[in-house]
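Structure ticket #2291
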Amino acid sequence: MRAIFKREMRAYFASPVGYVVVAALLALYGFFYYQVMAIGSSSYITQVFSTMFMFSMMIMPIITMRSMSDDRKNKTDQALITAPVSVTGIVMGKFLAAFGVYFIANTLALLPAITMSFFSSAFPWGILFGNYIGTLLYGAAMISIGVFISGLTISQVIAAIGTFVIAIFLMFVDQIASALSGNFIGTILTWISFTSRYDTFTQGIFSVSSCVYFISVAAVFVFLTARRVESRRWN
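Resolution: structure written out below.
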């Protein structure tokens, strides 16, 4: 798994993909932090992360679109499948590499907030790290979904579009659930909502149930991707 992780990380930063994703997220964070500094109140940090939820979900397909489909397109997937590495190890290596790019961008994005703390007498550290942890958790869940979709197709474009559609659905699932409130479908849509669980973290509250939900989603889709790769190995 470690070898796959290193290989994928090198691939991300050997091409413009890794740099574009990190630069885009940092530029957006920088812009919204600038607005917070212009207002002069660190209490608006929550709004930075709430707004970045939408942008991060839209950028996620760029990170995951090549994770599985690129090997199939270049015919290098056969070498991976027949290598003395477990299928789960292959998928986990690719998942962790994609998450690593996302982690780097969001960790570097803490620098403006930490700088602001030197000029604030009552900096909301709890809210900052609550948002940070929540951002990493929903990112891990969404990346696992993107890796799974990438494993279903040979085309990076189709993988990106498919992940983007899922991301848009998850962003607006609460509104859809409200329109269907009072019936079984509405209840299911409310339960799968990313936004409602992420909002708990934006308030500086560490929710164990939300952590378990995001980690479970990531684990389920990593498992499904591994089973998809396993089926190709047997074929």
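Closing remark: The chain is about 80% helix and 0% strand.
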